[in-house]
Amino acid sequence: MRNSPVSIKPRGENWGQRIQSPAVNLTPFYFLLPVLLACLVLVAACQRDGEHGAELYVFGTLVEIKLWGVAAQDASHAFAEIQQMFQAMHRDWHAWEPGRLTDINRAFAEGRSATADADIVEVIRRSQSLETATGGRFNPAIGALIRLWGFHTSDYPIEGPPPSQAQISALLDLHPSTADIRIEGLEVSTGNPAVQLDLGGIAKGYAVDLTIARLRAMGINNAIVNAGGDLRAMGTHGDRPWRVAVRKPGGGNVGSIQVHGDEAIFTSGNYERFRQDQARRYPHIIDPATGWPAKDVASATVITAEGILADGVATALVVAGLDGWPEVARALKLKQVAVVDENGTVYMTPAMEQRLEFTGDFKRVIVDPGAGPGSRDRGQSKVPGPGTGVTGTGVRVKCQSNYSGTLL
Length: 408
Description:
alpha+beta; 30% helix; disordered C terminus
């Protein structure tokens, strides 16, 4: 019997509205319902053909965990331990409800040092590296800017006009950056009071990594952890690989990916979480350079060995846009990347083309990030008609059709 694929959907869908539509808001890692729900609830557990599964509601997202080849008692113990772990992460990493991270942000604003825990210190260190590697496209120090846009909330959509350019410029002029954060043991401080951490674009990836590590420490080697589109798997599903179904935002699947060993597959999307006024819609993914929502790229998917890397990179790819994403992929030596523009065209690396099994017609552009920046520009401006053609160095277009849905 063919194993049923685990569905992933771009971050931004609302699990609270429909169980089949996992949601992760990229900027707020943590959409909260009231505290009783926010504290992680084990809502389901089942066994089928050697598989044990549980669904944990945390951070406003349904986290699905599946284990294979584990005794029922061991699976129950693992689920209970992971539940406690997520409770602690939720309490400590939340960007706007009282907790350790908000204490740190308050200390930064007041010019004081603060005591973090080892996990927050690790996330800050990795964030510093990623901010540098992505040319500032990933920058979790812009929490004040995210708050200015109103995205520190669980209630979407947000109605009303955007902040004024003067308000945005006032924050940008202070140049908040993770590079401003000093770390001495568990003590963190900054000389820039504008630094306000929002770990929404990276912490969930780290949480998934910690979950996989905890399961492995328990002797569990075949598992998949899907946090609303942020997914990591290890081992196999019996005698088959784990299979991940990639879903369209409007429903249905566009294809699937078979997991090879231990991999993280993360997707960021910009179309569900937003504010709007009578003029336009403003997605929740903010470009740290402009202070305005990212544009051009509707979603980005990346496959890496670590969730923390995949999470931060997926954010940076959306921010980079159609012209910049190959540069980010090249800088981080990413081989398996796909981005989708606002018209539904899929741009992907040659390695990702080999991984993603599509279920229908679509238009796709194969981009080799190693070919240099010129290849992407020529590929965008000269997309040929039906069939296969070459548009410039490193770019190949295949399968022109009327497909217009948002992929990944």
